[in-house]
Amino acid sequence: MCYFVMSTPSEEVLLADWIDVTFLAYSDSSSSRQIYTHRKETIVHYQAYPPTQLRSAYKREDESSKELPFFKLASRVLSVSCSPSASSLRLNGVKNNTNTSIRKLSLAISTKRYLGLSSSLNRIASSSSSTSSLTPALRLSQISRAFSGTANREMPPIYDKPTTEKYDYIVIGGGSGGSGTARRAVSYGKKVAVVEATPYLGGTCVNVGCVPKKIMWHAADLQDKITNHAHGYKFTGIENAKFDWASFKPQRDAYIRRLNGIYANNFDKEGVEFHRGFGRLVARDKVEVTKPDGQTYVLTADNICIAVGGQPTIPSEEEIPGASLGIDSDGFFDLPEQPRRVAIVGAGYIAIELAGIFNALGTETHLLIRGDTVLRTFDPTIQEALTPWMEKTGVHLHKRTHVTKVEGEKGGPLTVHTDNGEKVEVDVLLWAIGRHASTKGLGLEELGVKLDKKGDVVVDEYQNSSVPGITAIGDVQGKWLLTPVAIAAGRRLSNRLFGPEKFKNDKLSYEDIPTVVFSHPTIGTVGLTEPEARAKYGDDAIKIYKSSFRALYFSMVDEEHKEPTVYKLICAGPEERVVGVHIIGLGSDEVMQGFAVAVKMGARKQDLDDTVAIHPTSGEELVTLR
């Protein structure tokens, strides 16, 4: 529950249970307290116990409060607090209605149950920081109006018990894949329940992956342009602009909470039941749900999908003493302030993206890799272009390096020891050495669901596990750990299970899946790498078309800041079918989508040659290669 305490409490009230937004109003004339908990369109009146016993609060019949609309109540409570005699706003132990308090209030609201409030409250905090005459009372009055606004939308209810004896489909995991398969199943008129252990729908991508990462990438890209490119275009006076991590974080987090709400609202609108709790298989057709308070209940369905995703891997203390002093990629999004020095261990796309963000924003960045190049599973052309550019732009690349020990304290500073005798002094150590499936505790092995040595669920081409009726999609099955792949696989799975006859053999093809890396510069790739193509078709059947150039954008930029652009086509057979496209350079992330369609359709080199170029663009290079 999220408490807005409108007068000084006799005991500290903390942000506790996330399920409901609660207004706790203290009376100046009495020690009595009332909690108003919003559910759907009405207010249900509760008698309050001390904060530690709030879970035991019981419903009181009070007709006078039942029909009071939520936002009217919010406005009334806040408006009363604007009176001269009212005490200052207190949120989670923060006294005085400061801008910091308002921002925390904004994040708390967005985190819990309502959309649209966060941006309004952030605007209030921002405007008041630049307006010294804005009184606390006026500030609270603005907050009151924000709550009363029509743009605010209520998030749907969360089911805490089975509402039917049996479901058609139970999905364990409320991420991108789980949401995709659940919503597709509901579109066929099926009864569907989604069980999610965390407070937030959307999975890794929405909460600690693609979306917040891309937002941070945009910030870093903007900093790079301001610092290194703007003066080339004769913009003056902005070269010293600096990124404010601490102020940006709550704004970014508020946006993510809004996305969580959109996921939940889509479930409610389409009829997917969302059950908050940890789901565990106790039988082939039964899922036990353990609620946050420890209570359990069982859901039943003939079809159960495992879509719990994965999580970052961190070495054990036995493997590397002090490893736990580091954070993982999830922890990146929890950093309250920008670190001055950071070491990242890993050479995959997560390590590369985070290193690029830190470096562009001005953090001293060390990247520790086991080999000589980054992105070793990508085409050699990509590796050869990106690795030296990262070094040139300031990333300290430690090649052929293994971490042997970490010393220091949680929160830094830290000393990272390597096998070649180096001691890297940093404030934050971030492990980006891979991910593993979140299958622990799901009861899979007890039911005979086969897992591979990494813990991934073994599935066939139709996403079936080794146990009939139990399927798996997304990161938990270990293939192509990408959000669009999980969504596509989930939708096709529901097509096959519940759709019309034409979909009885529907399945996802894992060939020619495009992907991008939000590095600096960005990378796009689809199809086979050159070594893969030569191994599959033979050297004589492969023809390579390649071009290196500078994007027009950099014509006005100093030479040292001109990013490389390299485009490569891999063609196979006498018809020169395009079996691989690999590009690095400005805008590659956007360019790749269209060419991925062409590769999927079996385009030949001649098809690209026959396409009229769009000029002047970088993308035109792919249809003019000779």
Automatic annotation (TrEMBL):
Annotated GO CC locations: cytosol; mitochondrion
Q: Which terms does the record give in the GO molecular function aspect?
A: flavin adenine dinucleotide binding; glutathione-disulfide reductase (NADPH) activity; NADP binding
The subcellular location is: Cytoplasm
- Which cofactors does the annotated protein need, by name? FAD
Any one GO biological process: cellular response to oxidative stress
Q: Which residues form the Pyridine nucleotide-disulphide oxidoreductase dimerisation domain?
A: 513-625
Protein name (Swiss-Prot/TrEMBL)? Glutathione reductase
